[in-house]
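Lab notebook: predicted structure, single chain.

Context: the supervisor wants predicted structures on file for every construct in the current expression panel, including those that have not yet been purified. This is the next one on the list. No modifications to the sequence; it matches the entry in the shared construct table.
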Amino acid sequence: MVETEEIKKNLERVLGQIRDACGRVGRDPAGVTLITVTKTFDLGVVERAIEAGAADLGENYVQEAKEKIEGMPGSGAGGVRWHFIGHLQRNKSRYAVKLFDLIHSVDGLPLAVELDRRAKGVGKVQEILVQVNISHEERKSGIEVSGVVDLVRGISTLENLKVRGLMGMPPFGLDTEEVRPFFTALRELLEKIKAENIPGVSMDELSMGMSADYPVAIEEGATMVRVGTAIFGQRR
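Prediction complete. Output recorded below exactly as produced.
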């Protein structure tokens, strides 16, 4: 069992490393959101994380997140922002728009259209990120770089979705300097799309970097880092 004090200590250490990374490149740490990844941990751990100061929580599976959010006291929101960071199946869209403040993993127009339809049904403008396959690995989710601009243009016509930026993951198993070019490429892609001035699109968020590489991601422009293991330890 991960206790509140241990979570708090690890959160403070990660936040310190975020400040250090920002300092190295002259960035304001307030411009980086730490998403505490609670996937596979039970509701008790989630509640302790919130008690320890976690304000943004990330989940990979809709059903697991639904059980946790609905199990929270009061309204279920727990006073935090919930992020969906896993692969989203279209048939889970109706739950996703009810549960999550930001969906990081929109990788195609059919999914976007379904999210738009479901968001309209609940009277919500759903904020999303477009997931890019920056590693060019077949087994990874995300749209290929060549198709990103067209996808963003397509989504921009949907009234109940709001594109806030991009998300991506480098290949696994690389050292910290080997991942840097992937983060650089994603930042440059975001800047390219931002320069297009697509109506209704704001390229303000860049979700990249996890426990093994988030300082490098921040140095390369990440505004959101998704950290679980460095806060909770290895998952069982």
